[in-house]
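ok trying this again, last paste got cut off
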Amino acid sequence: MGMKMKRRSFLSNIPFGISAIAAGDRLSNGEKKPNARKKPALTVAHITDVHIRPEENIPQRFKKCLEEIKSKKVDFFLNGGDMIHAADYNDITKERVLEQWKAWDDCVEQLKGYEVHSCVGNHDPWWATPSKDDKMYGVPYVVERAGMPNRYYSFTKENWHFIILDGNNKGISLDQEQMEWLKKELENTPSGTYVLLMSHYPILTVTGSWEGGQHKDHVALRQLFYQHKDKVKVCLSGHQHLLDRAWYNGVEYYCNGAMSGFWWGKGDAKSARPTYYQETPPGYAILKLYEDGSVENEYFTHTY
């Protein structure tokens, strides 16, 4: 990036209370020294809320961030949605949607050789098509453009099973079809395999108390996770543009801040610093997943 990176760390197996330290220092939950007996399984990058658009040199700024992430030797990328700036407003034209996706395609060329597993954000689908029969209408077009196998899906790497959800349903929730599928996915996950779930929207979140944005079906999901508490270990999200960590019944809930911060802009009166969304700087997370089901989630800020 040409700038010294600052880091914020949210690590598992540590006290929940967060000690806020002056900006520029490490924000830590009181991390412990690594356990040398733990065997690392995967290193994963989590990017979310990129909100790409062609103006203001944003693609070039995003590409620099991607190069920084690649230098951390990640195995693959999890992309939490809101890839493009916005297709969901009523006045968005076809031309505007296409130029945003073109900017996205151009940027992810930087990731040739890496798998990128995406989910659909609320700003990604275009609803203002002339007809619902238009191939660009809604979620299916996003699935196609992002190279996703379906709007929700799963895959396995090492002894970790990854479940990608689509919360773009009434009130931010899983539809019945998807919920039944999720139940079967968890039932069929073998013992000794650990589960990471990713949704664009947080399932449990600290910031929901003032920002909203949480899955409305969080009670049903929480109960389902408890039925599989030996498997479910991590839930990742974005959407809030805010950074938080929640823990409940052995599951870590990480809402990682937005790659775009304040939508690649300078901020507003609520921004603690320029480019921040409220108190959260723009950035991305690197997750260390271990063979024993433990996890570390470390947030890296960037300057744009």
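PB: full thing came through this time. The two ends are 9 Å apart (CA to CA).
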